Amino acid sequence: MDLDVFVSAHRAEWDRLDALLRRRRRLTGAEADELVVLYQRAATHLSLIRSAAPDPQLTGRLSQLVARARNAVTGTHQASWRDVTYFLTQGFPAAVYRARHWWVPTALLSTAVAALLGWWIGTHPEVQASIAAPAELRELTRPGGQYETYYSSNPATSFAAQVWTNNAWAAALCLILGVFLGLPVLWILFQNMLNLGIGFGLMSSAGRLDTFLGLVLPHGLLELTAVFVAAGTGLRLGWTVIDPGPRTRRVALAEEGRAALAMAIGLALVLFVSGAVEGFVTPSGLPTWARITIGVVAELAFLAYVYVLGGRAVRSGVTGDLDASERSAGVPTAA
User: Residue 150: CB partners within 8 Å, gap ≥ 6?
Assistant: First the structure.
């Protein structure tokens, strides 16, 4: 493509489109029709330039022009409670359901790693000695020790907020850093499983595994599931960089990236629930069986939410991505 000739041939159309977009008065019917036609042509021109003769300055100018024209033609989207309802009942559960082939294996493997680490630490005194001095280990694991008092170390409200913030940040990092081939996600996941394995191993070696499980399970089931979902989604995003499938890498990353962003918002809500359980239920005076039951019910409710609502939404065509009307217009180019 001769870029100078192409620009000379179509500059008048772009200038006319810009003039129509700058009109302060209401467009006539004929002018509105003309704006739509010019917008479609400009979008095609932009696609051709990007594929055949990319020029940063011209591409930037046309991108702005096409974006302004698209807003004028389609109108700007105003968020509403209907959007919130759609996200909570279809968009978010559909995104989690679609990612199940990533986060379910991630959950199983991570749990196995945590259990293996816990067994290794619990059965090897020399490993325990490398973690802390004997006196410090006794202080951690004794009745009323630091493992137990941790959950009541601050007022329930502030503790729940702190836990929620930390967990939401960890989940967001898994989603954001997944684009780096998923490698940072594996490290974040390992750190979480190592912390869990250390607690498991030290408390089991002190003969207090039942106490440890009674403290972790009420909030940990839902909390860890949210972390596994974030990690699995991050790993899927990293794999998209390697193998985008039938889509172009750019389109695939855009689609999966938007779904990951929506996932971050949804998981923040899930972690808010687990944080509330950790702040108010875990340190409460309820019997152990009652606290664990609350955790199991919360976990089963989330899984039902994903597999029932999410599965139904996916079967109806929902992907967890933005609605088609809210995505950037895609214009086919010549092969």
Answer: none
